[in-house]
User: Fold these one by one.
Assistant:
Number 1:
Amino acid sequence: MPNLVMYGLALTLLAGVLSGNFMLPMKFVRRWPWENLWLVFSVVSLLILPWILELFLVGNPGRIYASLTPGQLLLPFLLGVGWGVAQVLFGLSIARLGLALGYAVIIGLGSLGGTLVPLFFKHPEVFGTAHGAIILVGLAVMIAGIAVAAHAGSRREQGQKRAAGGGYALALALAILCGLMAPMVNYSFAFGQAIAEHAVQLGASPVCAGYAVWPVTLAGGLLPNLAYCFYLLTKNKTWGVFRGPWLAETSCASLMAVFWMGAIAVYGVATVYMGALGTSVGWGLFQIFNIITANVGGLVTREWSTAPKTALRTLYAGLALLTVATVLLAAGNR
């Protein structure tokens, strides 16, 4: 495997580690409810950090965006809006459908769609090759690993009650919709490369040019997240919480944002080093490393300390399948 592809694989692993751990600071929040924390996290991660990264690593944002057609900006923005809606639907779906089925449907569809859609539209010739067959087998093993890991999580959470609201059919429909929309952040990056190409033409490094795409994509994703946070803040009458002590909670929310945006930024660079299939195979690998890291982090922080041994064995089987899927997808990207 070429050195550059190996470097891209290592960066994808780093992105997965950052993404898999971005929720850890939330464990230290004591006073703020979810909507207050998520509002600060959303503003920092989806608005402030993307612009800082572009200004320092790309430069000339005004010239770059002025050189683009409205359609070249609108498509990644709208795909970002779709991903933002999926962010809101994720929590609602898990609460109503349960962890095992909800997680398997959402992450499974998101991983599958985020890998196959860019591959189908940008490199359809791969499907008729041996490498394409290896990628498809790797995707099948990945979906199996996600389902097994989700089942393990369900067995760990057996004693917890699900949130009320909505019937099973509606909950399943929400989960499917969420799974279909979740990879739109990857679609936006994959199909918004005209922005990166214009950045290169104006002097940006090809490795860093992708940072010009994220402010457009994530601005779209910010809108649904803001709308949902404003709704909850008004419904729960928690606006006043912002008037109290805020340093510790704001620091936790900002650290979450740094981890999450760091993961997205590193993933964007990794796709460049992974070659032509970076935004397809790279997405599948990113999801695998994300899931593995999150579950290993749960083991380290003793979230599984009271889980039955059968649940732990199931988790290890799921992680083993995801490891095999990693090898297959990396081999298919050669």
Note: Residues 159-166 have pLDDT under 50 and may be disordered.
Number 2:
Amino acid sequence: MDLPPVPTPDDAAKRAAVARYAALDVPAGGLGRLAELGVWLAAAQGESPPKPLQRPRVVVVAGDHGIAEAGVSAHASGDSVRQAAALREQVGAAAVVAHVAGATVRVVDVALDTEPEAGTAERYRVRRSSGRIDRVDALTAAEATNAVEIGRAIADEEVDAGADLLVPGSIGVGATTPASVLVAAITGTEPVAVIGRGSGIDDNGWMRKAAAVRDALRRTREVGRDPLALLRVAGGADLAALTGFCLQAALRRTPVLLDGVVVAAAALLADRLAPGARTWWRQAQTSPEPVPTLVATHLGLTPILDLGVRLGDGSGAATVIPLLQVAARLMTDLAAVPEPEPVVLSKSEPDAESE
């Protein structure tokens, strides 16, 4: 894939933000990670002090997976259609959190296991569900490339509409299984070390998931660590679209909050396709799942919060939006250290030179 170099966040704005925080009337280091977030936001915006966020946007990519047939999820096949509908009706978790955080939510169906609703944007549909990756490829080569380009187009649409912070999310029964395979393939991690409880599976479900990851990982040996080939063999339309979304946000100089297993896997692949994209991202929170922790370590990202949220729909990341707003406002509204009053010698007191 022919991509331009990823731009770097503005270093001059970063230095100016560091200097501005140093001039605030608080003890050195007193603002902790809030100062770090403010500096990151200033570098991303290219100005100091940074502006408060005007249009934070949660974009949830929905797609089902054939591997759900293997019993790797606590959810029934088709539940993702209901979850996507709940988000559109503003009663899903990510929609509720986003509303409180001052963000809006968009849901994009790229591969749900249903016919697209009348009036929906079918140009975003890659296929109906992705292939069962322990037996067949998830996508064709054309579908994988198309899905990445769809993700890039969605990011472009959001940035062109004024989004100044993007929060990618995911909905799809079985999606954490291909995500685990992709991360294991890229990082060389054993299957048992990338598998969590995901949707709340029991021990039997965990063993079925481990077997599915093991079998799918064997199938990736033919493609090595090639991101596009991995998405074709063991990924899915949603993972490919999120990969394109994350890398395009970086190319468009737009900050991103990462959270969840599927988004983490997509980000890892995006940074492989577009080296340096990670500088535009922050890990929102610590997850009880192993994949986000592995990816954060691999990309050198430190989670901002420790909430233990393991929903992948962007709800965990959306909780960080108010902290970014606070970080920006501190830099603009907090008093600076007052200038010292000049020392004026009394006329009755001789100066040192006259003695």
Note: The longest helix spans residues 141-160.
Number 3:
Amino acid sequence: MTYHPKSDFMRVMMERGFLADCTDYQGLDAALMNGVVPGYIGFDATAKSLHVGSLIQIMMLRWLQKTGHRPITLMGGGTTKVGDPSFRAEERPLLTPGKIDDNIDGIRQVFAKYIAYDDSPTGALMLNNAEWLDGLNYLDFLRDIGRHFSVNRMLSFESVRSRLDREQSLSFLEFNYMILQAYDFLELNRRYGCLVQFGGSDQWGNIVNGIDLTRRVLDHEIYGLTSPLLTTSDGGKMGKSASGAIWLNSDMLSPYEFWQFWRNTTDADVGRFLKLYTELPVEDCDRLGALAGSEINEAKIVLANEVTALCHGADAAAAAEATAREVFEKGGVGDDLPTVALTRDEIGNGISIVQLIVKAGLAKSGKEAKRLIAESGARIDDAPLTDPGMTIDASALSSPIKLSAGKKRHALVKLDL
């Protein structure tokens, strides 16, 4: 649809490509013009860090605050005990309360880089839905909340129907998830005046449930806004790479590897990613994204620097770029490469090069490492690695060894003194 927004936030969402759908464009736009609007996104604590797949939602909250409104980050301390079934082939493994709390602590560190938590009218709130979910009385909840939900309608949502169509089991526990998420929106509206829920387009059904429930119980008008589910131009899932998930916490993925992920963006994605993941003016994003040939590589460096600076700080971005230039352009080692330190006990009488490649994170298994060597994709200190039976002893690690997989992935292996 063609809609010309009046509020800064809606204009940013539309210009930069954040907007997939909205339950009421004009209603939300008017609310945003009328005062400070609290808006939330829920994040289940299934890991100690969020990954790049969640970054589009984090950037939405950042823009919400930058345009004069109040972001709410809702940690799913309660809902993580159930698990979101949306578009999953099987039930999530259930986590202990202690593990959930640990994960929330890790995720909290990510948000503090992007939004400000303070006591100002636009200061962000960090909340946990265990606050209202843990103490629910089941019979009261069924009577007061459950009666508002139609099972027929719940079965019609794509996230549920896709599981049933494939004849995959959907437990009653998971089926309850969408009711709990709807109840979150109701409670956030009741307690904090929250007016809008954001999420990926796969959350549309859950968001609409929360809007309907709040209207029925409180007679309040609230809104939902979804972002597109991003895939890369080659069809890959955003946030995944050959070496695994691209985590946002530096203790789970080094700033250099994070920088490299963005530097390796496909040419066709550069302009789109600059709009979504940086704060460069839209016209600059379009100009950089339109570059061709070798010039697009400089645009990718701009992208990598801007995104890394937001997540890990400007110094980390500068160090990553310096290391990359040294490694790629000068054939050097680079100070900021991912490093594996091995003890003499680990090395023993010698460790195979195949094991080293796996330990360095350049291959997921010995089989993959051997294939890398067989296909001439592995190098040691920039020389081709051809012998999968090669062993390295402690004396060979008196100075660090540089291992490479292809032209873009590198790691150092050294002796832990």
Note: The CA atoms of residues 338 and 411 lie 5 Å apart.
